[in-house]
Design a protein that fits this description.
By secondary structure, the chain is mainly α. It has one domain. The protein is 76% helix and 0% strand. The termini are far apart.
Length: 66
């Protein structure tokens, strides 16, 4: 498994874990998170994947502040 794939899976799992305490509910958060990651499933360029990971890290920080 490539390191980028491993990073993507880790951030996805972390976001799902943080979503358990999301104010609008876990199912709302999970469906939105799943849509966002599904949208980026076709990315093949390393730079694009790194940008998507950085965006997910930003979202993670925002959810942590809630």
């Amino acid at each position: 498994m490539s390191t980028l794939r491993h990073q993507v899976l880790n951030i996805y799992k972390e976001l799902l874990y943080l979503g358990k305490s999301y104010p609008l509910g876990y199912t709302y958060f999970r469906t939105r998170c799943h849509k966002a990651f599904s949208k980026g499933a076709g990315l093949t360029k390393e730079e694009d994947i790194k940008n998507a990971i950085a965006r997910a890290e930003f979202v993670k920080k925002e959810v942590e502040t809630l």
